[in-house]
Amino acid sequence: MDNPLILNAEGVNKSFAGFKAITDLNFYLTEGELRTVIGPNGAGKTTFLDLITGRTKPDTGTITFGGLTELLPLSEHEIVRLGVGRKFQTPTVYTEHTVFENLLLSLEGVRGVWKTLFSKTTSTDIDRIDEILKTINLGSRRTDLAGSLSHGQKQWLEIGMLLAQNSKLLLIDEPAAGMSDDETALTGELLLKLAGKHSIIVIEHDMVFVKQIATGRKVTVLHQGSVLCEGSVDAVQNDPRVIEVYLGRKKAA
Ligand SMILES: Nc1ncnc2c1ncn2[C@@H]1O[C@H](COP(=O)(O)OP(=O)(O)OP(=O)(O)O)[C@@H](O)[C@H]1O
């Protein structure tokens, strides 16, 4: 039997000044799934993430988290607290704090900066952070300033911050952008490691990376604000509609 749904979006529409960015969108994600979303520029990928996180509210439709909670009435803050974490394309870590402190500041996200930095850190917190450091391969950079990390390492730290925040659903926007090939491959390994324990939506343009993380899984292609098709990487890559609106154009470019 399939895992239960962690996210279902049904009949979602969103217009900006009369322009339909999202049109009758239906999207279903099961618990523990790692789903890659691809599509041409302007397809509505970022807007879709904005709708999930409450940054933008839809005109019509429903978005339900964990099979129960309707997200639309909730604020961005409340949605984070429910367990929805987002990583933007540009890393936003606290560069003047150490890697360890960045994770400490994110723990549950509810303690407040003052309390976190000046109260005594418990051994449970330290163990948890060390476990996250191991997961994101930054154990050796624990006491270094986050500002001294490479671009790729900052992205991993930010993923670690989502883990510290207790995110169940991770929304990750173009993680491979600006990374070296080695960093990209390591990022893929990290996401594969997190899948199962977390539900993950990754937006990505780099098809080598998509192949790495999506082989054996479902890929969603967005086009003009709707799902154009869903299927395996191979099925999607060979779908004439996807070649026409996206992959063919990418190649030509
Ligand atoms: N706040 C806004 N106001 C007006 N138009 C917007 C707004 N946000 C998005 N749009 C428009 O909605 C469409 C979808 O944009 P969106 O950024 O979601 O696409 P995308 O698939 O993420 O594209 P890319 O791959 O280039 O990031 C675009 O035409 C964009 O100009």
From TrEMBL:
CDD domains, sorted: ABC_Mj1267_LivG_branched
Listed InterPro entries: ABC_AA/LPS_Transport, ABC_transporter-like_ATP-bd, ABC_transptr_urea_ATP-bd_UrtD, BCA_ABC_TP_C, P-loop_NTPase
Residue ranges annotated for the ABC transporter domain, each copy included: 7-249
Superkingdom of origin organism: Bacteria
Presence of the UniProt keyword NADP in the record: no
Secretion signal span: none
TM regions (residue ranges): none
A GO MF label: ATP hydrolysis activity
Pfam family of the protein (one): ABC_tran
One Gene Ontology term, aspect cellular component: plasma membrane
Key words of the record: ATP-binding, Nucleotide-binding, Transport
Keyword Cytoplasm among record annotations: no
Entries under NCBIfam families matching the protein: urea_trans_UrtD
PANTHER family named among the record's database cross-references: CONSERVED COMPONENT OF ABC TRANSPORTER FOR NATURAL AMINO ACIDS-RELATED, HIGH-AFFINITY BRANCHED-CHAIN AMINO ACID TRANSPORT ATP-BINDING PROTEIN
Record's protein name: Urea transport system ATP-binding protein
Species this protein is from: Prosthecobacter dejongeii
